[in-house]
Design a protein that fits this description.
The chain is α/β, with parallel strands linked by helices and 341 residues long. 44% of the residues lie in helices and 14% in strands. The structure holds 3'-phosphate-adenosine-5'-phosphate sulfate (PPS). The site of 3'-phosphate-adenosine-5'-phosphate sulfate has 22 residues, from helix 3, helix 7 and helix 14.
Length: 341
């Protein structure tokens, strides 16, 4: 059966999705039996997966269906992030780097002129395994570029078995928190709900009760996988990408087996990708200003994935005490693993 979430015509088309209410029903029943509590989310209620992370019910169920049914290929590249850590930016960089030969980054016909990065690199549990659908991704050309917010332990089992590549982006927890809090409150306002105060948001975040949280477990899972297997798991920091985006585009291109040639370097291809995907350029595109992306809970304006795009905006929102508390947790959790953010 064809889906209501169709791929934009400018992108390769997937096969028709199968509808499997029974599978979704079984996982919904199972996940509904897990503990749930108030947290930092649009609807306030987050379920705790048996592997210890939090999410809303439809997303958790989508992740479980993806685990059961997604067939990864060694050539796949999966962007993994905590929400609000630089996902949109990384999707843009990855898509434009991988497809730079068919779609020149500076060219007028680039897909970003008509669709956002979330349409070009789609999320398993937010976009593909949703609303009883089991998508047919087999016909998509290699390399398939996909994304997820689930922690390492809950990645679809075929991802680990296939040996495909994972690109992880981590962001300073204080900026991740502020970005999440702003995003959540934007939707709460639309839903007629009271905003969550920044103090309450910080409390939930520190307790791990935020989408895909706890933040620290999420980051550590992928950091340790990167240390154990650097050729399979690439680890980026948002702050370092901001400081030197070109170096990160080169690293990314090498990691996915498409390094920039000397000729491309001379022609400024790296800078063209950086410029195309920059916050300033992306926010000016019509696809950002007026486009929408279908997510599990409905259509979301592409502009909502862009707010300020700064490093250190937390200073404008968090009290020194809250900042110290988050820093102390981060230090206690990360220090032993040689990770600083
Ligand atoms: S989501 O919903 O999980 O996909 O959000 P995510 O993309 O991970 O995070 C959104 C934050 O990333 C900023 N952003 C960017 N920064 C730099 N460059 C580019 N191109 C870019 N695109 C999005 C976005 O503004 C959000 O951060 P804040 O701090 O809220 O501005």
């Amino acid at each position: 059966m064809s889906s209501s979430f169709s791929t934009p015509a400018i992108l390769p088309q997937e096969g028709d999705a199968e509808t499997n209410e029974e599978l979704y029903g079984q996982f919904t029943e199972l996940a509904s039996s897990w503990p749930c509590s108030r947290g930092l989310s649009r609807a306030n209620l987050l379920y705790r997966h048996e592997k210890g992370w939090y999410s809303t019910l439809p997303l958790m169920v989508g992740a479980m269906v993806a685990d059961a049914r997604f067939a990864a290929r060694p050539s796949d590249v999966v962007v993994a992030t905590m929400p609000k850590s630089g996902t949109t930016w990384m999707k843009a960089l990855l898509y434009s780097t991988v497809h730079r030969r068919e779609h020149a980054p500076g060219g007028p016909g680039h897909p970003f002129n008509s669709v956002g990065p979330h349409e070009c690199v789609r999320h398993l549990e937010y976009q593909l395994y949703t609303r009883n659908r089991v998508p047919d991704l087999a016909g998509l050309p290699d390399p398939r570029l996909l994304a997820t917010h689930v922690p390492l332990a809950s990645l679809p089992r075929s991802v680990a078995a296939s040996g495909c590549r994972i690109v992880y982006v981590c962001r300073n927890p204080k900026d991740t928190l502020v970005s999440t809090w702003s995003f959540v409150n934007k939707f709460r306002a639309e839903d007629g709900l009271e905003p969550i105060s920044v103090e309450a948001a910080a409390g939930y975040f520190c307790d791990g009760v935020s989408a895909s949280g706890p933040y620290w477990d999420h980051v550590l899972g992928y950091w340790r996988a990167h240390l154990a297997n650097p050729e399979r798991v690439l680890f980026f920091r948002y702050e370092e990408m901001s400081r030197d985006p070109a170096a990160h585009v080169r690293r990314l291109a090498e990691f996915v087996g498409r390094p920039f040639s000397a000729e491309e370097e001379e022609d400024g291809a790296v800078d063209a990708v950086v410029k195309l995907c920059s916050f300033e350029h992306m926010t000016g595109l019509e696809a950002t200003k007026s486009g929408k992306t279908e997510l599990v809970l409905g259509a979301v304006e592409n502009s909502s994935f862009f707010r300020r795009g700064l490093v250190g905006d937390w200073e404008n929102h968090l009290s020194p005490e809250t900042a110290r508390k988050i820093d102390a947790i981060t230090d206690a959790k990360f220090r032993a693993f040689g990770l600083s953010v």
